[in-house]
Each structure stands twice: as C-alpha cells, then as structure tokens.
Here is the input.
Amino acid sequence: MNGENKENLKELFAKFLSVEQAERAVEDVQKAERILGEHPAPAPDDALIADVKSEIAEAILPRQVNVFRRTAYKTAVVAAAAIVIAAISVRLLDIGGGKHERVTYASIPEALWDSDDISADDVELAIFTAEIEQIEGEVLTLQLGENGGNGQAAVAELEMELIEISSNFWER
Amino acid sequence: MTKSDNLARIIIGCKAGSAESFSQLVDIYASRFYGYFYRLTGDKVVSDDLLSELFVKLVAKISSYKGGSFESWLFKISSNIFHDYLRGKQRRRKLLEVRKRQLESRITEVKKSDSERVDKLQIQLEKLDTDTRELVMLRFYSQLSLKEVAKIRSEPIGTTLSKLHRGLKRLRELMER
Here is the structure.
C-alpha cells in the first residue's frame, strides 16, 4: 500500500543506525508492511457510505443558508451605501447648481405652459375653433351630397386638413 | 487531468459547498479511513461512527484547509478524532467502575458480536500499545513519508522512526508465531 514512501527508509535509518542495522530495520519494516497488505481491513458497507453522504448533505445545508444570508446582508449594505451616496450627490449637485429648473412633461408644448398672455391665447383658440367649425360644416355638406364633384376625395382632404389644424394647435 | 489536479478541483468544489464534490471525496477516501479506524479500534460499529464523524468534520473544517498535503491534513483530523474517541472511552471506563456489574454484561455482548469478524492481524495488533498501533496504522494507511508522519504526531523524526521500527518488528514476530 505504501510503496511511495519506501525509498527514503534506508537513508533515514542510516542517520540513526549503522549501515547493517539500517538494512535490517528496513527489512523488518518492509516485511511487516507486507503482512499488513496481506490482511486488508474490512471495507465500509454501502449503507454506511450512503449514510455518510446524507449526513454531509445535511451538514452542508445550514452552511449554504449562512452563505446566502451573508450575501444578502452584504448586498443590503452595498445597496444602502449606494442610496446614501446617491442622495448626498444629488444634494451636493443641487446646492452647486443654484437655480431650480422646472420639470415639464415632454409631450406638452412648453410654450403653452410658459405663455403669460391669456388674452392672446384666447384669440388663437377662438380662431382655431372657428376654422374647425367651418371645416366641419364643409365636411357635412359634402357628406350630404349638396356639393357636386368627387365627394369622397374632398372629404378625405378636409379631414386631413382638420387633423393638421388640430395638431398645429397643440404644438404652439 | 492528473490525480492531484482532480483532487484540487474536488477540494475547490467542497469549499464552494458542493455536495457532489464531498461525495467524490467520500468515494476516494472512505475505504482507507475506514481501514485506519477499524485497525485502531477493532470495532466495526465504532469505525462506522468515526468515519461519519471524520466527513462531517471535513465539511465544517474544509474552509480552514490552506493547501499543502491534503491527505496529511485529513489524517491529522482523523488522528484527533481517534484521540477524542480514546478520551471518551476512558470516561466510559470510569463510569464502568461505578456501575461495573450492570455494564460489564453489555460490553461482553458487544465484544462477542464484533469478534465474529476479527481476523488474526486484528488480534495481534491489539497486543501493541495504542500509541504504537496508531503510528503503524497512520504510516500504513496514510502513505505519507515518515517526515510527514512525524509532523502529524508532533515528534522528532528519530522518535517516529524508532517507534515504528519497534512496533512493526513486534507485529511481525507476533504474526509469524
């Protein structure tokens, strides 16, 4: 069984014994080890091996839970640190920036919100409303067939015009 | 992949908590360590317990393995487990003195059941003192060099060599009778 460690024996014994004694000692050791090799110990039962493996699995479980817990704690600490740093950074930038800028919703034209001239806005609104009403009247006339020519094409054209006017109004 | 590369890979797996890697270690070492415990105790039931204890301890201690000879490290743990068992046995012996009559009958029963499997070598091994028997078994089952064996036993190599020679010579004489 232990062939790997035989070569150093003679040399080792020679450090403490005479050459002859060392040779005899090596012989004693080798013969006894041969006897040991000829009498193998019983092997463990398969059931024992299975038990050992299941015991290991049980022992590993709490370890894995601890590892998970430790990882979760670390992640929580890092996340909390990141939030604190972000909050401090925002505050510092705020102080450094000075003037606050109003946040506006991108899809609403800024001009509409910035306008202080309510009367001018009302006039524009009145013009648009009138235009829309006029076009709606024309559409109705065409649909009722009161006007000659290509009615369907004219209706489509007017509808497009209506949509365009409506869009222009909200872009202002 | 060499044997040591494979072992290193398994150890890394064990450190990561892989049950599969531990299972591979059991497959590699169970027979050797079982033989070691059996030859020291001469008792299958005790050997079963000590082998289980070894692998459960391995799970707990694997993170403290920092390289070097893994087998040497494992045999050091095994040796400690055996010594703990001996200490426990001594405590049990003291208890025996108190409840001698009650327990003696039980022990006789245990010995009888175990003796069915005891071979000639086991009988002769038990004639050696515990320390010598442990040294002989450590050397035989660990396959470690005498230098490493001496290190595990925390004694000078000359002492280990002398004890081993005396023990093996005596064992040989006993077996050849």
In short: Helices of chain A lie at 9-14, 19-38, 46-97, 110-114, 118-144, 151-171. Residues 104 and 149 of chain A are 48 Å apart (CA to CA).
